[in-house]
């Protein structure tokens, strides 16, 4: 916060923030409380009296502290930030917040897991939500995105079926927050339009390393509309500045040891002042180009390859503030893909159309009719209309008139003509028979799934095969496994065969897709690789070479890395030359899973415990392909482990070591190492 002027939303929220520190204790009805530990009783040991309004108020309120969790995306985490435009987008849209490059728009983001309930583990294989509420001067604009550019289904009427299949099975109520079970894969195999999305969720994108390196996609086709009334089709993208980086499956599984892994990362990075940055971009298609592609641009199971429709970066999103209260802000935040502003409009994407109903409906069911008046949801522009009453209304409307049209209030609040900012729906032509049917142009379910497969590097393919083998291998019903492999055979025989051999089924003789195109932009091997914000565990024992280590740590901090001192126990560790560090984590409190690299220093005080812990820790990091740096003196340990000289194992043999290690950290994973994580 320091050095930054408060934005409109922060100023608006100030009036709602209550700080109880240093205050007297006063009940909700304003009574000063003399004793908050003892209920009112008759006599020392006597019964509690019902007239004790203080105990009644406290207990009754506690009984109502929970609201229904979201039916999907129940587990979520929020943060505030701002959007700053790079250049005016006025040529294609009249959206107020996209006109003037000097403009900053406050926003709130909520990241989420789809499947699990509010307390589920955050590192499971799942789609992640990436919802953004822009508090524009023209009202709220929400992008209710996920970390994939496509979705499972094409028509919203199938959404309840999809979710019923993926939630814990209704009889035994497991598994929690995961896709690896029969009902989910039964749905996927039985509904061929999901084939493409299945490929994406079996890729490493479904196990993001953190929210800071997770990509967001608006999925649907929207419209931009400019002042002249000309519309373009657009898709929204949110690109993390640090690149897109996943966990690997073995890490994700083991991170079950920290159910809060992602929220802890976001919170601590924002608190450390590591502003979390993304670029908001759009793909734009002219209306007259609508039918020029070999996929239907309204079909939400298809992406627009960046190579065919390039991304245009509009501006930067920076997350810079954590919430004060997770319930009031994050839990009560209410997003809606229908929240658009002048200059943005919908397309006929049938999934989007269904979502337009569902989100207001769910917010009203979950938080009540007046949810838009809650501080987190309230626009920063004024709100005047004739809607009244309902549960928990905050606004006090003065006057007799709550209807339109009227004489008594001189026909106000008055309607606003378009040239004064009134929202006008884009007048697209609609025609056709009323019918229930899937458009023929929506029926190709395998071409883009094959393009996805073609775009993957060998390592990514290995992970996808491993993921299918695990997920389908956890299905108890062989027919469910077989049905999915039948589907995969239509995408790629190579993929189907690799999976089939691991899960005891066969590959049918069906025609596989002949698509030869690929989209290199979707491979995670082509993302940004930087050392900035990466955490390196520095293993120090008493008597370490102080000045040498100090110089390296300074160099690494300058490169934006976060060295974390790890030793036998918390407290201080002192070098041979008297340099002292506070130990940040002991071997007991810090897990190898939470570091991106390790530097093994040691010292004269290395004992058996240090030796054993360092060995286990380093082996774990080695198996996860992470960079390992070590002093020459520690070479024997690496030799003992059989990993010296392996890719990404850097010895501090010369004065270039500091930079070589930064380069190794930036590379992040050394896939050249042998891998035994999957049976290939
Ligand atoms: Fe949804 C929540 C994203 C299809 C119905 N959805 C929700 C959230 C995200 C998405 C990010 C969490 C919002 C938050 O943080 O509070 N949903 C998507 C995307 C979809 C999609 C990208 C397809 C492209 N959703 C979808 C369909 C329906 C819903 C087809 C129903 C017709 N989604 C909901 C919901 C939720 C929701 C039940 C639960 C909580 C909420 O809305 O606020 O209404």
From TrEMBL:
Domain of life according to the entry: Bacteria
Coiled-coil annotated residue ranges, if any: none
Boundaries of every Catalase core domain copy: 26-412
One Pfam family here: Catalase_C
CDD domains according to UniProt: GATase1_catalase
Signal peptide: none
This enzyme's EC code(s): 1.11.1.6
Keywords: Heme, Hydrogen peroxide, Iron, Metal-binding, Oxidoreductase, Peroxidase
Cofactor(s) this protein cannot do without: heme
Catalytic reaction annotation: 2 H2O2 = O2 + 2 H2O
GO molecular function, one term: catalase activity
InterPro entries tied to this protein: Catalase (IPR018028), Catalase_AS (IPR024708), Catalase_clade2 (IPR024712), Catalase_clade2_helical (IPR043156), Catalase_core (IPR011614), Catalase_haem_BS (IPR002226), Catalase_immune_responsive (IPR010582), Catalase_large_C (IPR041399)
Family, as annotated: Belongs to the catalase family. HPII subfamily.
Free-text function comment from the UniProt entry: Decomposes hydrogen peroxide into water and oxygen; serves to protect cells from the toxic effects of hydrogen peroxide.
Protein name in the entry: Catalase
Organism: Oceanobacillus jeddahense
